[in-house]
Amino acid sequence: MKENNRKNFPSAGKGTGRRLAVLAGAMMLTFASPLSVWADADKGGDTVDTAVTVPAFPGGAEDSQAGQGAASSAGSDSAGGTVQGGVSVIQSGSSTDAGGQTADSSQTTAATQTGDSSGTATRIIRTQTAAGTSGSGTAVDSVSQATSGGDYSLGPGYFGQSGVQIQQSLDPNSATSNAQIYDVTNPVVKVAEKYSYDQMVQDINTLKMKYGNKMQVNTIGTSLDGRAIYDCIIGNVSAPRHILIQGGIHGREYLNPLLLMQQMEMALANYDTGSFNGNSLSSMFSQVAVHFVPMTNPDGITISQFGPDMLRSQTLKDAVSTCYVMDTAAGRTSEDTAGYFSKWKANAEGVDLNLNFDALWQQVSSTEFPSYSGYKGTAPGSEPETQALMNLYNDSRYNWKAVIHYHSMGNVIYWDILGNKVQAESSELANLMSTVTGGYRLLPSEGGGGYKDWIQLSSKPVPSVTLETGKVSCPMPISEYSSIWTDNRLTWAVAMEWVAAR
Ligand SMILES: [Zn+2]
Known about the structure:
CATH architecture: 3-Layer(aba) Sandwich
Bound molecules: zinc ion
Largest sheet: 8 strands, mixed
Structural class: alpha/beta
Number of domains: 1
Strand content: 15-25%
CATH class: Alpha Beta
Strand order of the largest sheet: 6-7-11-8-12-15-13-14
Order of helices and strands: HEEHHEEHEHEEEHEEHEHHHHEEHEHEHH
Number of helices: 15
CATH superfamily: Zn peptidases
């Protein structure tokens, strides 16, 4: 089934530049020489409104239907932390997926890195052979098998397994070796064990004051407990193409809001002087606006970081206390309140927001009652935080071209869903993200009910991937952050380059 999809990949030389070509047959990823996809908007002016040559829009590429048959399954953190413990299994190379293939050892990966003749580009060719392409729909994947114990529920319903798992052994710096984008010295956004909502709001305001019109800050909704949900747009808000990077939808995954805020600051700080594969960032931002929604679930993060006493609403405090009583009675936790609340994923009503989207929602397994994790709500889209993300995606001002969702944990990428309307494109984006992160492993699906799933099934689908950061269960110690940063600091730039060439 994968073979049938390959015709949907953009061919080399398409459009104004050969930025990325997936070569038929071998499923190679090629980062080709930087050609003039980007106009030099920084010459003679550094504002985002400088006139540039905009690459031709791909003619409805996202509407092309990829194969429908590669439905797949996987447990994930989306329902109950089922990724926990999966890494060691995956890395052992001994786990099996639904089709019975060995997850790693049956696949071939080769990485070749060569400079081109001018010495200005780095070229990476990765060859991979997919594992099985058919699934019985009866087995769980290695991740969920590895995590079926404890007080975590299994992931949402299993829909089969396409078995595309890929091993990488790439130099994490190779995909971005031509990035003239530097970490910020003395940044506004400082690494903290518990990067809080209040700190984030303060930092957003400081960045806005510091970087002015390079950044537009919007609120896209309000949480149950009255916290604003922010959409920070970097670049030209009228750009013909938009990317959305979203994180913090699960409470205990609060290193990702820090990551997204630091990505954002790095983009701003390098805006005027930085370049990526020979293209100035300012010209890139004139054509592609990048939206950062760093903290979709501020109430849940507040609960996980500081406990329910930090909620403002007594009604909501009572609601989450009831969750503890119910989960304890049901045997879903045996922890004390401090341990229990530190693992909180849901919003302040006990709804797991990434199970609340209208994407195979009826099939998504769920607890019967509100909980710290794994409860999908009374109806799809029932929660204000869910609605905020839906409304953002449906905002006609933004021509979305790619969406990246940050979750934790596992150092894996989920990229597919049953009925995915942009399967080939999502696969391509996932491979790209795998490369730039230095080898995050691809897993085909995370079930249903998620924002990614909803986007891939929507009437206007765009390529969409979920990056699961970190190697230990959440909440993660801050010691995990440096590797998360190293792996993910430039995902936004790579995504910008990709969408511009499509
Ligand atoms: Zn998550």
